[in-house]
Design a protein that fits this description.
Largest sheet: 7 strands, parallel
Family: Belongs to the adenosylhomocysteinase family.
GO molecular function: adenosylhomocysteinase activity
Number of strands: 12
Oligomer: single chain
Helix content: 25-40%
Structural class: alpha/beta
Number of helices: 12
Pfam families: AdoHcyase_NAD
Protein name: S-adenosyl-L-homocysteine hydrolase NAD binding domain-containing protein
CATH topology of the largest domain: Rossmann fold
Organism: Endozoicomonas montiporae
């Protein structure tokens, strides 16, 4: 049985093709076009159950695949066992002397590694690493409308699902202090408000807030620490590593009664926080779930991630960070909205 068939068999008891229409179409196209034939590919997205679906088009496209994963997320043991049985190379940390044709990166873990055709970055925190250097070609998936769809609809839902999975089943009336109101923060706020929680938002660069919520000036340390003491949950979603310890007294958080949650791709609390003071050991909290984001929400972003790899095999880009073409983005977004009956005009 082929690698593609083995992975397909492994996922079919968890997902139906209707849950991943974008990736389903992409499997067929990549199998026909084989864009990665003869190409060495490092695929370093979180190694979870639904990542297996994301891998299928790349496998169908005849890539020579090596797997890794971001440090903030532990890999799924069952997935690791399957990949090992299939003979796919994988590393927690790829040796620094290895190079690839393409690197599908997450959290910028492999921003310093050589990729002859270029890198694709999935996250905002990782993108900052690529923006700080000028010797790499990188396609930016995070800044697209598709990432907004995933984070607004998917990440907020998964946080609530993870909180209930962890035993916090009644969120109505709970006081939530949310750090960050970008794409992820907005999705989290939306989901928590739907649960009738009380949400206060801390932003170092305040913007507009929902009517039901309150912004707190992140530069006002006294006001922020007072809010921490009143909170039932503190949730970080800024995309900034160590943002809490770099701006606020650590003891105010550790000694509070609030449950501390990190929803960023990096450790947003910082090294001064022992792992046991933040739920899930400071790792991204929704990764306590077998499906950190529901397949239907993660389908379009992984399809775009893979399409960006195909683009890098077809054309050359100047050094630096680039957005994928609008035509590519809108094609994936349109397929997702069509499949799930979503009004695309809400996002474009």
């Amino acid at each position: 049985m082929s690698i593609q068939s083995e992975i397909t068999q492994a996922i079919q008891s968890f997902y139906s093709p209707e849950e991943y229409p974008c990736l389903k179409d992409q499997i067929e196209v990549f199998a026909r076009e084989q864009p990665f034939v003869g190409k060495s590919v490092l695929y370093a997205a979180p190694l979870t159950r639904n990542t297996q679906v994301a891998l299928l088009p790349v496998v169908a496209g005849e890539a020579d695949i090596t797997l890794s994963w971001p440090d903030i997320v532990e890999p799924d043991k069952a997935v690791v066992a399957l990949m090992k049985r299939l003979g796919i190379h994988f590393y927690q940390q790829v040796p620094s002397n290895q190079s690839f044709d393409l690197i599908f990166d997450c959290c910028g873990k492999y921003a310093d590694y050589s990729a002859s055709l270029g890198h694709i970055e999935l996250t905002r925190s990782g993108l900052e690493k690529y923006l700080s250097q000028s010797n790499t070609v990188c396609l930016d998936v995070d800044s697209t409308v598709i990432k907004s769809i995933e984070t607004t609809l998917g990440t907020g839902e998964s946080l609530v699902r993870a909180m209930k999975h962890a035993g916090f089943t009644e969120l109505a009336g709970k006081r939530i202090l949310l750090f960050g109101y970008g794409k992820v923060g907005q999705g989290i706020c939306r989901a928590l408000l739907a649960e009738q929680a009380n949400v206060d938002i801390v932003e170092l660069q305040p913007g507009l807030s929902p009517e039901q919520s309150c912004f707190i000036d992140g530069s006002d340390q006294a006001l922020v620490t007072e809010a921490v003491q009143k909170a039932d949950f503190v949730i970080t979603a800024t995309g900034i590593k160590s943002v809490i310890e770099n701006h606020y007294p650590v003891s105010e958080f550790i000694n509070s009664s609030a449950k501390l949650i990190n929803m960023g791709g990096e450790d947003e609390y910082g090294e001064a926080f022992p792992a046991d003071t933040v739920l899930n050991g400071k790792h991204t909290f929704n990764f306590i779930l077998d499906d950190p984001t529901l397949m239907k929400f993660i389908d379009p972003i992984f399809a775009l991630y893979n399409e960006c790899g195909k683009l890098l095999t077809q054309q050359s880009y100047s050094l630096g960070v680039h957005l994928p073409p609008d035509q590519t983005v809108m094609s994936v977004a349109g397929r997702f909205c069509q499949a799930h009956g979503i009004d695309m005009s809400e996002w474009v």
